[in-house]
Write a structure and sequence with these properties.
Elements (H helix, E strand, L loop, with lengths): L1 E6 L2 E3 L5 E9 L4 E9 L6 E7 L5 E3 L7 E6 L4 E6 L8 E9 L2 E3 L3 E5 L2
Parallel strand pairs: 2-11
Antiparallel strand pairs: 1-3, 3-8, 4-5, 4-9, 5-6, 7-8, 9-10, 9-11
Amino acid sequence: QVQLVESGGGLVQPGGFLRLSCAASGFTSSIYAMSWYRQAPGKERELVASITRTGGTTNYADSVKGRFTISRDNAKNTVYLQMNSLKPEDTAEYYCNARGTFNSWGQGTQVTVSS
């Protein structure tokens, strides 16, 4: 069993920045990769970024490449999503996911980009 605790969401102006954090606890040795997803009203949930626990291989959605950076701290069982140059289109509920032996989701954190 893996539990995920997210933090860092909030309201930010266009062009601003936020850093999301996701701390995993429990059977963390079962984690293969951790990811950030987002879902805006009326849209499908999309994968934003992912990173493997071993090796640190990253993957990004085309819409966030060059602006968002996913990173990990295995000692803390935590992943981060640094979001720069935020756009109104980035407004969504952001969810942390851990997959491997188990598949766990965080509760989500709201990111709103607005003037």
